[in-house]
Write a structure and sequence with these properties.
Blueprint: H1 2-20, E1 28-32, E2 35-41, E3 48-56, E4 59-66, E5 69-76, E6 89-96, E7 102-108, E8 113-117, H2 120-128, E9 131-137, E10 143-149, H3 153-163
Antiparallel strand pairs: 1-2, 2-3, 3-4, 4-5, 5-8, 6-7, 6-9, 7-8, 9-10
Length: about 170
Amino acid sequence: MAFMRAAAAVTAAIGYLALAAAGVAAQERRVVGNWHIVTERDRFTDQPRVLAVTAASGHLLAVRCFSGNLSVMLIEGDSASGPFQAGAKFQVMSRVDKSEVWTEVGTAVDQRGIQLDLPAFMFARIVTGKEVAFRVTNEVGSYKDWIFPLRRQKEALAPVADACGLK
């Protein structure tokens, strides 16, 4: 039952993110474990756009390479943390397994999603880790932890790495 909800959430997220990706050519989709991967080309730059999405506990994690830029999108699958106000800033702490904590400012792109840049070292940790956790803190100091178990991510994130020129 939980797997069915997660699969439905990921499918909905891909539709949500596809609508947000205006100006792209035809999409190629595939599934690797609990990851859904979408590959397409930007109509204006002809550069690759690759998106890998997974779900856990009602939240979605999208690891993306759009026009050579690596980023993460955290998507609220339920309304416990949102709705967000577009443009709102959040402190986002990230940690893969027991590695060093990395902090970045994330920006709400709409009522459901927070986007943040993803440095190559953090991407590499996600590729090899067992779990990634995000602590999203709003402007008044309230926070929520989003935790994603990682399985088969090395295979699922390979197209993202290729699109962003990572080895």
